[in-house]
Amino acid sequence: MLPPELETTLVAAVGPLTRVEPLGGSFGAALLRVTTRQGRFALKWAAAGRPALMVAAEAHGLRCLAATQALRVPALVAAAEASAEPAFILVEWLDGAGTRPDLARLGEQLAALHRHAAPAFGLEVDNFIGGTPQSNQWLEAWPAFFRERRLRPQVALAAESGRMPALRRHGFERLFARLDALLATDEPPALIHGDLWAGNVVAAPGATPALIDPAVSYSQREAEVAYTELFGGFGPAFYAAYQAAWPLEPGYAERRDLYNLYHLLNHLNLFGESYGMQVDQILRRY
């Protein structure tokens, strides 16, 4: 089940493996639960290529989030960079014993995470959003970053796969010309998780919320909050706690769908034209 060289590395880190349980995987990386005498761990690994780069990027994102001490992420036990074959990350297994994460606490903690700022938008390395490469080359202005590092690469991918008909393309060209005015902000770049939907929030003991599968960057914090609302939302307690800790700027509700255009484009590229109608509806609004 595991490559011999990977098993040898794991044994050196956490002792002999007493049980290995496949849990599926995504975008070419395998996910397993590993048990040793030291406890249980989550293992994600990939042999080579883009999946290996994704695993390495996830390790970097977990380190970035953990360094802030603003919120909980699984402790990184061991990892091998993408240049290694296979690449892997081994983290603690978080078991909330069937409890649901405290979303009010998460709202407060997310606001604390967003207080960690940088002098520009981006990150020192590129990473992935889902299975799609995400460029994080630094830019000083948020509208330019959102246009050049977020929307434009997704538009190019959609064009390559035949999912950018003329009307949709013209809508993006019109939007790109207006972004400087639509997204002007004086707020500093904020460290964000980057892929914050309900499936990436798990419960640690004591109902402590913990975040997994990051796609971190220094971005506009509103973009993170907007994405939490895209697929059902996190509930009133989460948003009330976030707003109490750090209120969003006036006009957020008018910008929310614009931010989510990035994630809808990514879903269009990953999963197909079923997301095209939502993309087109947002383009007509702006």
From TrEMBL:
Molecular function GO labels: kinase activity
The keyword Cell membrane is annotated on this UniProt entry: no
UniProt record similarity statement: Belongs to the fructosamine kinase family.
The name this protein goes by in its record: Fructosamine kinase
InterPro entries named in the record: Fructo-/Ketosamine-3-kinase (IPR016477), Kinase-like_dom_sf (IPR011009)
Keyword tags: Kinase, Transferase
Species for this entry: Candidatus Viridilinea mediisalina
Any Pfam family the entry gives: Fructosamin_kin
Record carries keyword Transferase: yes
